[in-house]
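In this supplementary section we document a worked example of the pipeline. Step one takes a protein sequence of length 469 as its only input; no multiple sequence alignment statistics are reported here. Step two produces a three-dimensional model, which step three serialises into structure tokens for compact storage. The input and output of this example are shown verbatim.
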Amino acid sequence: MPAHPAGPRHAEAAAAPGPERPQHPQHGHALDRRIWPATASRGADGQLIVGGVDVRDAVAEHGSPLFLLDRDHFDDLARQYRGGYGDAHVYYAGKAFLCGTVARWVRDAGLHLDVASGGELEVALRAGFPARRILFHGNNKSMAEIERALDAGVGRIVLDSFVEIARVAAAAEQRDLIAEVMVRVTLGVEAHTHEFIATAHEDQKFGLSVGSGDALEAVRRVVNLPSLHFAGLHSHIGSQIFDAAGFEVAAHRMIQFAAQVQEQLGVGVAEVNLGGGMGIAYTAHDDPPQVGQLAQQLRAIVAEECRAAGLPRPQLAFEPGRALIGPVGITVYEVGTVKRVELDAGESRTYVSVDGGMSDNIRTALYDAQYTVTLASRVSTADPVLSRVVGKHCESGDIVVRDAWLPADLAPGDLLAVAGTGAYCRAMASNYNYLPKPAVVSVSGGTCDIVLRRETIDDLLRLDPVLGA
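The serialised model returned by step three reads:
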């Protein structure tokens, strides 16, 4: 996954063919430890067990589809990030998945939290998350959101435009306080991921460009406004990044820009936030680095860039979201229709329809995302057949797992589990076709705790003035 200055190669990456069809499995029921939650195992009947909980029992109690979060795995990852990044501030990116319970997990782990809307901010505050440990993102914050953030005393507001500089300054002045702000900059660097999740090249909605001079002008405006305090610089180069190359280029340009700020404006950059985007393993083809390994590389990169520029090392900050919550989550579905379709050259594909789909996981349709799926309710000795796991929505693109090898005897009532769904699945869920959103439960020590209860049809109809009564 090379990083490079944004340019023609970006289009080449977006047009590149997707991953090859998965190889025929040698051990169809084995659980790849890089992909599945840390406590995942197989029971005597071949059923999937996570956090000591039989997924069959979890579905019987909470229904299907069902999101399961491995609480012990989350706590372990949080410890790894706190230890690996040392004195850096580690913000959990709430957009990956946020609710009251997860906000408290993050708080109790000693991490910081970044939010990207007034709604996410309200979740954090009502969950008792310390406001000073909150960073507020967003490219189009409303005045109401800005005022709520200031009244709550959030630790950082990330400024994304000249308009926001004026908005935050006016709201802070009205309250007779000084707002701690960072300037989000675009550095002309992107990590080679999907086009829609690469966010640091110039042609995009986030941040202020270093190359055009807008970023320097933004810092100049901030330092000249008495109701704002320039806390530092922020950047984000993309998502699902597997190596430090992109961060290395970004850090180089960020420190160069910090030197420019020092030289031309006489202002030091006390804090540098390099964003998130650390990747996870969705399939056997993915090979993300260990938390400590990447942390060591990133800290060394910044230290070397600062030494070369003759600047003191700033306070560092990072924003893992997917990397913290993604691996701990799975989705369990019940199989409905199983249909074999004949293809060209004598090949066939089995379509396995489940009771969810793009309403609980839009990532396959949106990003052509790849996932690992397994039979979760029993053992099977049947030969595996090439299968496509699809949802029940009225869309041909309603695909959960595009290609997978599943037992030929798969039948209605079986349970399938999809790994790596803790991030951006329930968070991006919809009620398309009036499907209620699934429940989310945490599992640990053989018990299930409700994180979000399952929606009901009454929940969906309550907002309709004709039907809600």
